[in-house]
Amino acid sequence: MATRHDDPVARALLNDFYELNMASSYLRRGMAATATFSLFVRSLPPTRGFLVTAGLEACLSYLERFCFGDDELAYLGSLGFDGATLDAFATLRFTGDVWAVPEGRIVFAGEPLLEVSAPIAEAQLAETVLCNTMTFHTTVASKAARSRIAAAGTMELVDFGFRRTQGIEAGMVVARATAMVGFAATSNVEAARQLGLTPAGTMAHSYVEAFPTETQAFRAFAEDLPEQATFLVDTYDTLGGVRKAVDVIRSLGLEHRAGIRLDSGDLSVLSKESRRILDEAGLPEVRIVVSGGLDEHRIADLVAAGAPVDVAGIGTRLGVSADAPYLDTVYKLVAYDGRPVAKLSASKETLPGAKQVFRAPGLVDVIGMREEAAPANTEPLLEMVMAGGHPIGPAAPLSELRTRFESDLAELPGAARALDSPVAPHVPITPALSALTRRVHGAARRNLHIAEGPTTGTGMGVGL
Fold first, then answer.
1. What is the largest CA-CA distance in the chain?
2. Is 127 in a helix, a strand, or coil?
3. pTM summary value
4. What is the DSSP letter of 11?
5. How far apart are CA 52 and CA 102, in angstroms?
6. Structurally, what CATH architecture does the domain formed by 202-290 represent?
7. Distance, CA of 56 to CA of 43 (rounded, Å)
8. Does position 213 have pLDDT exceeding 50, yes or no?
9. Which of 249, 328, 426, 452 is most buried, with most CB under 10 Å away?
10. Are 353 and 335 in contact (CB under 8 A)?
């Protein structure tokens, strides 16, 4: 049975300063009613037609362990927070509920990835880490999913990103996200250990260079690590390296478990020539691994060219999601003390109230109110995953997350899965949510006019 991440990062000062200011004011004024915040992505990057939701388990781990330590309270005192506020912070824990789309599901812009309902100070203080976590995990999982689409089942994919990710923790996230969308292995050994993944790796050019000859390097590696005998053949002359690898493989009887790796040059041409050399030498089972600056577009080019590639290691461009390194993720108050509320800022209007996403076959979605009945032939996407500050049930294993992803990917429309100029499905709202939105927005505009007279102000959040 899977366990939740042992996330050591549950300290309350992992926060933006204004969150602490607002929470302090709420507590000072006795504002303890339940607030609901919705976390969603306003719009997709131009190169994305869908997202794969990820990061929920890390979010739940953080919320369950949220607290202010003594050193943190002392630091806040040095910043001028008064004794009453520090006392309130000292006992504050997250006691709320969370509804969320399970990890591994494909989602679209505007749809809540998760919603938090808790006393307003608690819910407010959750914003920074939840946004940070959901944004990066989802960004990387979505990028990795595009490589899966590009590979079209013709080759295994391996996460090679650890050395180039922007931080050690990011490397762990990338390994998990790639496994979730069906990568076969990771170069990150600690991630493999923690997550039950397959570790994978070959050798570096430095290993080859450390020996007097290429043949000596290949032979030494194969003798010491016969089960890992994949030879990096492009240190000097690629096709010459392939021929030397052939000699070593045949002399040591590694015909059924060896491989060669191509890390530079025209991978399509070189893989075809390498395959020819291997096949002519009677080594049809020797696998060809490619790496070196790969992403979904280069993978698609290899597939289109009919390159005989068995495994592709994808690193930097995936690990930092180079073409779309961030998402426009926001965390907005949608209800407080039983009142639906909304923001009216230009181009940033929000939908009021707690919500649900209803999905019909073919990933046809509609956003509605949480309490309304599901439209015919739809299923609700958001599930209650935390109650009273405690996760509901154990964490789902990665295999279950992968199954969810595979099921949704099979139904994803072609326009959304396109690697170039993708078009995401339009997600409408239900008539009930539309009516609520009109009422709340209308009341907000009337209240603004009454309170301040005619104005061109940039925005106001007001409840019905």
1. 89
2. helix
3. 0.93
4. B
5. 10
6. Alpha-Beta Barrel (3.20)
7. 20
8. yes
9. 249
10. yes
